[in-house]
């Protein structure tokens, strides 16, 4: 009798674990971030360089620094084994400084930029059953950017930018367990079109660009949770 009870309990326990293993999750939520800091470095120093191998350092004695930070939270609905459709927000911050200007007696140039936006993304996962799996993720985002510059402690520019971005990204997921993934993502292609305006001098214009983003400085790292 005791053996029968033990067998029944064992089979019941195995059934519960089997149901848990077969559980389907309907949503994902997570976020990625990217961080960049440069000190007297090219290309974001925006000045001439003397390196013959394509440019590593800035080419004069100005003291330059560039800091940027990006965070992109998202939530998605699982449509099928391979497809996810979701919403993504985008916040970016940039701080650019030039001090001890060699070409002027001024104290320096400062430029602060803040950007916020959001939109839709779709993700196709190539091998979702594997612990390591890869995905392609196109997105369509609307962004608003505000930038303020000052020279020698005096404001010289205030700009507002609205633009629409179409992006394609490649990513890799590593399953820590059934519900948590580590997410690495890198941009591949990007098309941007928008409108900028400087109210301080009453000028504005349209702009557009198409570019590739396959570089390690564009690599984002994050986590996501399935529920």
Structure write-up:
The chain is mainly β. The chain has a single domain (26-226), classed as Beta Barrel (Porin). It contains one helix and nine strands. Mean pLDDT is 81; it is low at 9-22 and 44-54.
Number of separate helices = 1
Q: So what's the overall shape?
A: elongated
Sheet with most strands: strand arrangement: 1-2-3-4-5-6-7-9
Terminal residue distance: 41 Å
Predict the CATH topology: Porin
- Please give the largest β-sheet: 8 strands, antiparallel, barrel
- Assigned CATH architecture: Beta Barrel
What is the CATH class name? Answer: Mainly Beta
What is the string of helix and strand elements? HEEEEEEEEE
Quick check: average pLDDT?
Answer: 81
Give a topology summary.
Elements: H1 2-21, E1 27-39, E2 63-78, E3 83-99, E4 108-125, E5 132-151, E6 154-175, E7 180-198, E8 203-212, E9 219-226
Antiparallel strand pairs: 1-2, 1-9, 2-3, 3-4, 4-5, 5-6, 6-7, 7-8, 7-9
Keywords:
eight-stranded antiparallel barrel; Porin; 227 residues; mainly beta
Give a short overview.
The chain is mainly β and 227 residues long.
């Amino acid at each position: 009798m005791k053996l029968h009870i033990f067998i029944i309990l064992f089979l019941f326990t195995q059934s519960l674990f089997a149901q848990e293993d077969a559980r389907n999750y309907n949503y994902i939520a997570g976020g990625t971030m990217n961080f960049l800091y440069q000190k007297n470095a090219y290309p974001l120093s925006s000045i001439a360089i003397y390196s013959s191998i394509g440019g590593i350092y800035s080419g004069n004695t100005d003291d330059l620094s560039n800091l940027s930070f990006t965070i992109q939270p998202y939530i998605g609905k699982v449509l099928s084994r391979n497809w996810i459709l979701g919403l993504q927000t985008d916040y970016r911050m940039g701080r650019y400084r030039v001090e001890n200007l060699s070409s002027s007696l001024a104290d320096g140039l400062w430029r602060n930029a803040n950007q916020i936006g959001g939109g839709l993304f779709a993700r196709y996962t190539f091998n979702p059953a594997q612990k390591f799996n890869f995905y392609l993720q196109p997105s369509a985002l609307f962004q608003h950017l505000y930038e303020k510059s000052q020279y020698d402690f005096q404001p010289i520019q205030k700009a507002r930018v609205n633009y629409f971005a179409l992006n394609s990204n490649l990513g890799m997921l590593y399953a820590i367990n059934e519900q948590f993934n580590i997410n690495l993502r890198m941009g591949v292609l990007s098309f941007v079109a928008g409108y900028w305006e400087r109210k301080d001098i009453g000028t504005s214009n349209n702009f557009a660009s198409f570019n590739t983003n396959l570089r390690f400085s564009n690599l984002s790292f994050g986590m996501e949770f399935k529920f």
